């Protein structure tokens, strides 16, 4: 049986307690996680055949510093796991090598002659030679054991003041595959289009689908429109029998509730949210599909603020509000986001369960849904990437972003709850 030092045992227990908080409840209940905490378990996996049961998360509590050949490990594990399995790993920082050397001399830790301490930059050098990439770093504890309230105190300090993270003893991150099967580029996408009083835009939306280069279905959610939106959608369904178009009746409770109703009716492997104001070109969805089907990210987030928005597309106050929230969300999640309120997003349809769980766990009421999707994706280790798109002026209909002070308070409240979850709990 593998002999572990006192410090190693304490760290692995602490590590697992941190990581399990960041795994969706459904994955735990459905036995979709696999924990590798001994060399024997690791050898059994690497020497055996491909893992047959569905594994969403492989948790390796053995510090990567102890691996004799890290590149070979990733090469072997690549053939054992599905394209969608995430690996959660940890390693000790090179800054703390002298500390561990001293601890080994007094018998608190074991000394491994060939162990390798590395920085984030060196870790990326290892990954460059493998099929894995970092999807997200977890806010790591600066002290690798739970010492009464001391560890929690220092953890809070490093969460608030990010520069102190360089002093952390350990690093924890999610990894996912860089290259995935080409089968994913053949899967259907459900284009979710929430509508409220958009009668003049429906026909153009359907006409513009001729620019799409992937299999799709359109799902309109009429959110208690007071004009002819519902009637026009039904008319277009009858006229376009060659297209897969659905109409879902919304409850008039706002965009995010409507989106979730649409996703319940979705049969596509991917879901794309597309606003009915047509301020983003339908053809841009080809870029979203390519990015997600090639494994570039798990949440493809449209960004309207990298290109300069067209004249009249965004009011000045909204523009600066977007910049403010982009920086706030980036600080909370440690993921760089340049636009938090772009309505165009793409993700795997089943990931809505993660978004719902995060919303329920934190008692979030996000009227637009963008913040909750971004926070949940980051919390559960999904790789978020921004995709720059052009933002045009609305030509028909009226904007729904008209109660700006009310919406600002709602967004700020959502950010506060996420801040407490990421930084304090």
How much helical structure, as a percent, in the residues? Answer: 25-40%
Structural Rg? 24 Å
Distance N terminus to C terminus?
Answer: 35 Å
Order of strands across the main sheet: 8-7-6-9-11-10-12
Uncertain regions spanning at least 5 consecutive residues: none
Number of strands: 12
Class by alpha and beta content: alpha/beta
Number of DSSP helical runs? 15
Proportion in β-strands:
15-25%
**Could you tell me the mean pLDDT?**
89
Biggest sheet layout: 7 strands, mixed
- Give the CA-based shape: elongated
The oligomerization state is single chain
Q: Give the ordered list of helices and strands.
A: HHEHEHEHHEHEEHEHEHEHEHEHHEH
Brief summary of the model shown:
This protein is an alpha/beta fold and 425 residues long. The protein has helices spanning 6-20, 25-29, 39-47, 70-78, 97-105, 120-128, 150-160, 202-208, 229-239, 255-264, 285-293, 316-333, 352-361, 370-379, 404-424, and strands spanning 33-36, 57-60, 86-92, 132-138, 170-177, 189-195, 216-222, 245-249, 270-273, 299-303, 345-348, 384-388. The chain is elongated and about 80 Å long.
Characteristic key phrases:
425 residues, alpha/beta, 7-stranded mixed beta sheet, 5-stranded mixed beta sheet, 12 strands, elongated
